[in-house]
Design goal:
Blueprint: E1 9-13, H1 17-28, E2 32-37, H2 40-47, E3 52-55, H3 64-67, E4 72-75, H4 83-86, H5 91-99, E5 107-113, E6 124-125, H6 136-151, E7 155-160, E8 162-164, H7 171-176, E9 180-182, E10 192-194, H8 195-207, E11 214-217, H9 225-236, E12 242-244, H10 246-252, H11 255-262, E13 266-267, H12 270-275, H13 285-298
Parallel strand pairs: 1-2, 1-4, 2-3, 4-5, 5-7, 6-13, 7-11, 8-10, 9-12
Helix pairs in contact: 1-8, 5-6, 9-13
Length: 300
């Protein structure tokens, strides 16, 4: 990998939680930021952060003149499971039209998810794994990845574990006193990544690009969701969560919640450490806990 200068401008498609954090960091580095969102309310919030924002559900409709100086693009558009029925576009629809409007583009990133990997019964999974999920969430992510990798040589794919940060975590739910988690037998591992480490990895990748690279973004400490909730509660001084067995969980929790936390895999992040971030700012939730608690006290 050859180190190169940061891009002068970046476009963030679907500029939500991760995108807004990336945008803020880019601005501090002198990178001009443009963003697309689907509704005007979100657009107004981003404009208050000094972002240049275009509001559309169809990225290919962004004007060519608005895109001509964009050197990097980050696609963080949420999944559209019923795109055709809802009149929405997916990457394979809009990419051919969008990319021809980006004459200065030299780097692209698609923010995917570790949901592309199938349950591995707790085994470690690295980027070479071909044991992919058959779930709708996993299949749609894989389709989007392939659309980007096929459309542009200088594309990188980042598979994100469960995202948390100061504004997105379970601390407030723990303090509410009725948080429930499941104790699976055998133990089911889940994976997390702090949003600040995602941003750091993306900035590093812009400087050390690797065309067609696929990279897992997860922290150093996969553990069960029940163990995570229990230890985090102790660290921030919140009430202990209710730990349910499988039968209790089926009776008390929604199928969607159960399906999300029933997965069981450990994401290997060795490639992330070797190529971009030798050390994470938050190698586990333990290092983040004091800041999460401080933020909760300010914004309960």
């Amino acid at each position: 990998m050859t180190k190169q200068s940061l891009p002068s401008s970046v476009l963030i498609l679907g500029c939500g939680y991760v995108g807004s954090k990336l945008a803020a960091k880019c601005l501090t580095l002198g990178i001009r930021v443009k963003a697309s969102v689907r509704n005007e309310e979100a657009a107004q919030l981003l404009r208050q952060q000094d972002l240049d924002v275009f509001c559309t559900e169809h990225p290919h409709q962004i004007p060519s003149a608005w895109l001509e100086d964009v050197e990097a693009i980050v696609d963080s558009i949420p999944l559209a499971y019923n795109a055709a029925r809802e009149g929405k576009q997916i990457q394979s629809d809009f990419l051919p039209l969008l990319l021809q409007k980006l004459p200065a583009l030299r780097w692209a990133a698609y923010l995917s998810s570790t949901s592309v990997y199938a349950c591995s019964n707790g085994d470690w999974i690295n980027e070479e794994s071909t044991n992919f999920s058959k779930s709708p969430r996993g299949l749609e992510r894989l389709k989007a990845e392939q659309a980007w990798l096929s459309a542009l040589e200088n594309t990188e794919v980042f598979r994100l574990a469960g995202i948390y940060g100061n504004e997105r975590n379970i601390v407030s739910k723990l303090f509410a006193g009725d948080y429930k988690a499941v104790s699976w037998l055998p133990e089911h591992f889940s994976n997390r990544i702090h949003v600040d480490d995602i941003v750091a990895a993306l900035i590093a990748a812009m400087q050390k690009p690797a065309p067609q690279r696929i990279l897992n973004l997860a922290d150093d400490y996969p553990c069960s969701h029940a163990a995570y909730a229990a230890e985090l509660a102790t660290l921030v001084g919140a009430p202990a969560p209710m730990i349910l067995n499988e039968q209790e969980a089926k009776q008390q929790l929604s199928p969607a919640f159960l399906s999300f936390f029933k997965d069981n895999k450990r994401i290997d992040n060795k490639k992330l450490h070797a190529e971009l971030l030798p050390n994470l700012q938050y190698p586990s939730f333990r290092e983040a806990a004091p800041i999460l608690f401080k933020h909760y006290k300010v914004n309960p």
